[in-house]
Amino acid sequence: MVSALKTFAKKALWALKIPYLPEAIRAVVKGPYTVDFPFGDTVDTGAYRGAPVWDEDVCIGCGACYEVCPAHAIEMVDDTDSDPPMRRFKLRYDQCIFCGHCHYNCTTDDGICQTTDWDLATYDRTQSFTTVEKELLLCDCCGGVISTKDHVRWVARKAGPKAYANPGLALTLEGDLINAPQPTRKPRPRGDRASIMRLLCPHCRRVVIFDEIA
Ligand code: SF4
Ligand code: SF4
Fold first, then answer.
1. Which pTM was predicted?
2. Which atom, in ligand 1's list, is nearest to the CA of 105?
3. Is 75 exposed, middle or buried (0-12, 13-18, 19+ CB in 10 A)?
4. Fewest CB atoms within 10 A around its CB: which of 2, 51, 122, 207?
5. How far, CA to CA in Å, does 137 sit from each of 1, 6, 52, 196, 213?
């Protein structure tokens, strides 16, 4: 009987919202915990996951961020018809889930960085994006895409002296990459021994080396 009375009293207290009273009084004195978004100031804890942004000087255009994005928010297009040929990236914020994988897996660590800028509301979602573009390096034989120039330079510098084991990287270190005429429009055929010392895509390099050995 006593326990039944206790249970009834407890339920009555919760029904009358009595346990909430201290919180209600505190809210009256201190003001509400919520903010009048989007009109009031929000509290920046510094821990928000917000919009990722590219750093054009640090990004090398390798495409790793495009590969790992789980929401397919990053587009990558190789435009070999433009002059010079370009690799263009577009990150759509209306599709981004702010997971941070692009930043976490960036080849250069900070080519793309996740900011705490989370308030990206807009009336026109087609304008909610950011872009970066990098010049492409094309195969001297077939005109196919090798990668971006910045990417190949980055790999060559990273490899250091070991880059001289690879003709393409060796040419890059020697500065030929920077000065070489862009072979986009007129790819030259493979065929002679000298082709080994040209900037080639993996397929053409394999064929040239195979022809040489054969
Ligand atoms: S350097 Fe980083 S940001 Fe640039 S394309 Fe590669 S992974 Fe993406
Ligand atoms: S934060 Fe996540 S969803 Fe957004 S672009 Fe980067 S990888 Fe894609």
1. 0.78
2. 7
3. middle
4. 2
5. 86, 80, 26, 17, 27
Tokens representing 209? 């080396």
> Whole-angstrom Cα distance, residue 158 to residue 180?
21
CA 34–ligand 1 middle distance (angstroms): 38
The enclosing H or E element of 13 equals helix 2-15
Looking at residues 56-78, what average pLDDT do you find?
Answer: 97
Residue 130 phi/psi, 5° resolution?
Answer: -135, 155
Please choose from 106, 134, 151 the residue to mutate so as to test ligand 1's pocket, defined by most ligand atoms within 8 A of CB. Answer: 106
What is the CATH number assigned to the segment(s) 52-136? 3.30.70.3270
pLDDT tens for each residue of 110-150: 999 999 988 888 899 999 999 999 999 998 888 899 999 99
Q: Which residues line ligand 2 (CB under 6 A)?
A: 52, 69, 71, 73-74, 91, 96-102
- pLDDT band, very low/low/confident/very high, at 185 (cuts 50, 70, 90): very low
Domain ranges of the chain: 1-33, 52-136, 139-213
For the stretch 188-209, pLDDT in tens is 555 566 777 778 888 888 888 7
Amino acid identity for residue 44 in this structure: D
Q: Are 204 and 190 in contact (CB under 8 A)?
A: yes
Give CA–CA dist 189/63, Å, rounded.
Answer: 28
For residue 71, the ligand 2 atom closest to its alpha carbon is 3
